[in-house]
Amino acid sequence: MTVGLVWAEARGGVIGAEGGIPWHVPEDLAHFKAVTLKHPVIMGRKTWDSLPERFRPLPGRRNIVVTRQADWAADGAERAGSFEEALSAAGANAGANAGAGAAPATEPGHAAEAWVIGGGELYREALASAHRLEVTEIDLQVDGDARAPDWSGDDWRVDAREPSDGWLESRTGIRYRFLSLSRPRS
Fold it and tell me: Does the keyword Oxidoreductase apply (predicted)?
C-alpha cells in the first residue's frame, strides 16, 4: 500500500494552533479533497475533534482515527489503537465500509493508497512509512502549537511545484503553493 501524508504549513512548519488551522485558504481545502477523496484517511483523535461536525466523517473516505482511548467511538469513524493498526486496517479493507464512492484496493489500475491527515504527532510517526507527501506552503508567519514533520533530511524528490516559481494568491489574499514529493519504496 502507498502511504501519503498531506498537510498545509505556514513558515516555520506551523500546521495548527489551539486545535485549529490559523488561516483559511479555500484552494488548499479543494486540493486536500482532490488528493484524499476515495482513499482511507488516517488521523489522530485531536484532528478528528478539530473537524467541524458537519464534515465528520469526511465524505467519500474511510475515516480511521488513531487514539489510545480504548472506549473511543464516533459515528462514521473506525478506531485504531496505533498507527500500525490503522495502516493494517486501511490495507486489509481498503474500500470496504468506506464512505460513498471510495475505491476498493483491488480496482484495476488503482493502487491501494491511504493518506495521513494529521496531526503533528501522527505525521512524525508516519513519515518513516510514507512514499508521498502533498504539502501546501502558506506564505504566512503565524504562531502555532503543532508543527509539520521535518522531511528535509530524507531522500524526498520534488515531483511537482505549483507554480514552478513564486506563489499563487488565494481568493482570501493569502499566498500559497503546492509541493508534491515522493521517495522510492524501501
Answer: yes
CATH number at residue 28: 3.40.430.10
Residue 160, C-alpha cell as written in the block: 511537482
Q: Is the pLDDT of residue 122 over 80?
A: yes
Of 39-53, 69-83, 107-121, give the lowest mean pLDDT range. 107-121
Is residue 51 exposed (0-12), middle (13-18) or buried (19+ Cβ within 10 Å)?
Answer: middle
**What pTM, to 2 d.p., does this model score?**
0.89
Average pLDDT over residues 171-184: 96
> Could you give the number of structural domains in the chain?
1
Average pLDDT, the chain: 90
CA dist 83 → 7, 21, 46, 64, 122 (Å): 17, 23, 14, 10, 7
Of 135, 136, 87, 133, nearest to 112 by C-alpha is 87
Angle at 123 between CA 146 and CA 90, to 5 degrees: 140
CA distance 136 to 168: 11
H/E run at residue 175 = strand 175-182
User: How far from the centroid of its chain's Cα atoms is residue 48's Cα?
Assistant: 12
Instruction: Report phi then psi at 163, rounded to 5.
Output: -75, 165
